[in-house]
Amino acid sequence: MTSTAVSTITGQQRAVRVTSNTPINWATQRGFYLDLPEPGERQVSDSILRNGRLVFSTLIPNTEPCSFGGRSFVFALDVRGGIRPDAPFFDVNLDRILGSADMLTVNGQPASINAVESPGGMGIVGTPGIQISGTVDTSYWSGSDGQVAAVVQDLGAGPIGRQAWRRITQ
User: Fold this and answer.
1) pLDDT-derived band of residue 42, with 50, 70 and 90 as boundaries?
2) Which residue has the higher pLDDT, 152 or 116?
3) Any idea where the domains of the chain sit in the sequence?
4) Would you say residue 155 has pLDDT above 80?
5) Half-sphere exposure of 77 toward its Cβ, with a 13 Å CA cutoff?
6) What's the pTM?
């Protein structure tokens, strides 16, 4: 992680994360990995791959040994190198517009937020469900407590669904 910050989103404080944008040197490296900063944090859900973006959630178990549950972060990475997207990915301020208000300043430079903590009280989030509508899509996060949150995100432009049809006759 390059940076973890706390952002106030619709009156709630929520942690957001920014990962590195250092590209992989494919001559010496065979891929990428993330050092997840929370104790016990791990990815246990399926990932979604669309238009070069890899979306997944992590599980952070409750730190109390006799308690159940936990919380999650939902990540978005560029699949070709594990770096953060250049443009805002999550609608962090919930205005349904992806813009500069959805970014953090890291080392004096604007940086897209590419991991957002699940809303308070929502618990552990599984694989998000995505409703596709152009370049701005709605991701539905279902929490272990039964809540569902709708989050606008940018999965990038690109073709979806059937692109061609060819009838083969004999």
Assistant:
1) very high
2) 116
3) 3-22+32-154
4) no
5) 23
6) 0.79
